[in-house]
Amino acid sequence: MVSQDFLKELPKCEHHLHLEGTLEPDLLFPLAKRNGITLPQEFPQTVAELETRYGQFKDLQDFLDYYYIGTSVLIDEQDFHDLAWAYFQKVHSQGLVHAEVFYDPQSHTTRGIPIEVVTRGFETACQRAERELGITSKLIMCLLRHMDPQECLQTIEDANKLISNGTIHGIGLDSAERPFPPELFVECYEKARSINPEIQLTAHAGEEGPAKYVSNSLDLLQVSRIDHGVNSVHDEELMQRLAQEKIMLTVCPLSNVKLQVVSRVSQIPLQKLLDANVPFSLNSDDPAYFGGYILDNYYKVAEEFPHWDHKVWSTICRNSIEGSWCDAKRKNELLSRLDQVVAKYYPLN
Ligand code: ADE
Ligand code: ZN
C-alpha cells in the first residue's frame, strides 16, 4: 500500500462537495441558537446524539431529511461565508488544491433568503481561500430535483446575472434521485446554456438510480461529467462511451457506504472503472454527515485497494486534475506539482 504521507501530499482536486454538507454538528446547534431557529421536536438534542444518528442512515432520503433540517440554521451572509471558510481551512491541511463546490440555493430561497445573500457568502469564502490558502475553486449551483421543474426554471432565471457574469461556473442536479429522472430538467439546462453558453454542466446520476439516468443526463442535459455514476458499470455500452468521451465520474466512497449504496468501500467498482479507462475523482460529498473529508476518502480507498501502487494513484490524481473545470494554466501547475510529489516519493520511477 502507498504511504499516507504520499496520499496527503498529492495535489488533490475535489469535484463533489456540497457546501451545506460541511455543517458539522458542533456548529449546527450554536447556529440554530444564534439565529433563533427551533429544530423539530424529534431532532437529536446533543452533538453526540446527532453524530450517532448520522451513523445510521438507511438511504439517500433518510440522509436528506437531516440534511435539509441542517440547512435551515443558515441565515446570514456571514453564516454561509463561515461555513465555506471552515471547509477550506480543513481541507487545506489535507492537500486540497482545487475545489468545485456545490450549493443548493433553493434550500435557502424557499425560507426567504435571497439567492444573492447565499451566493455572496460562499463566493467571498472562495475568494479568501484563493488569497490566503492558494486553493482555487468554482461554484456550482444545484437544482433540487424533488422540486417542481418549473420552480427550478425560475431559480435559473433568478440566477441569471450570477450565471452570465460567471460567479456561478456550473449547474448541477441533486437531492432525491428516484423518481426524478434527468428528462424533467431539460428546459432548465437549456435555459442555463442560453444565458451563458460557457456554463459547465453536471448532474447527480447513478447513485441510487439506474445507468439509464447517466446516459439520459449525457444525451438530454448535455452534461460533461457525472456525479456519483457508480451504477454505470451495469451498462457496457455506457462504460465505453464514458471512456471514449472522457466523462469523469465524481465518486464519493465514504458517502456510498454511509448511504448504503454499497456495504463497504471495496465494493465500489473502482477497479472496473480503472480497467475500462473511465476517469473518476474521489470526493467527500457531505463530509460532516459521512465521517470524513477528502483525505479520509483517499485513505479509506487506499486501505481497501491495498494493491494499488503509486502509478495507479498518480493516474487517479492526473484524471482528477484533467477533469477539472479550471483553465489550462492552472491544470499545468497542478500537473507539475503531481510530477514533483511522485518524483519525491518514487525517485527511481
Ligand atoms: N445532496 C447532498 N448530498 C447529496 C447526495 N449524495 N445525493 C443527492 N443529493 C445530495
Ligand atoms: Zn452529492
UniProtKB/TrEMBL annotation:
The active site is at 207 (proton donor). It comes from the Eukaryota. It holds the Pfam family A_deaminase. It is found in: Cytoplasm; Nucleus. GO terms for biological process: adenine catabolic process; hypoxanthine salvage; nucleotide metabolic process; purine ribonucleoside monophosphate biosynthetic process. Substrate binds at residue 286. Its cofactor is Zn(2+). PROSITE patterns: A_DEAMINASE. Residues 11-340 form the Adenosine deaminase domain. SUPFAM superfamilies: Metallo-dependent hydrolases (SSF51556). Its main location: cytoplasm. The record marks 228 as: Important for catalytic activity. Keywords: Cytoplasm, Hydrolase, Metal-binding, Nucleotide metabolism, Nucleus, Zinc. Its EC number is 3.5.4.2. Zn(2+) binds at residues 16, 18, 204, 285. Gene3D superfamilies: Metal-dependent hydrolases. It catalyses: adenine + H2O + H(+) = hypoxanthine + NH4(+). Catalyzes the hydrolytic deamination of adenine to hypoxanthine. Plays an important role in the purine salvage pathway and in nitrogen catabolism. Belongs to the metallo-dependent hydrolases superfamily. Adenosine and AMP deaminases family. Adenine deaminase type 2 subfamily. This is Adenine deaminase. It comes from Zygosaccharomyces rouxii. The lineage of its organism: Eukaryota, Fungi, Dikarya, Ascomycota, Saccharomycotina.
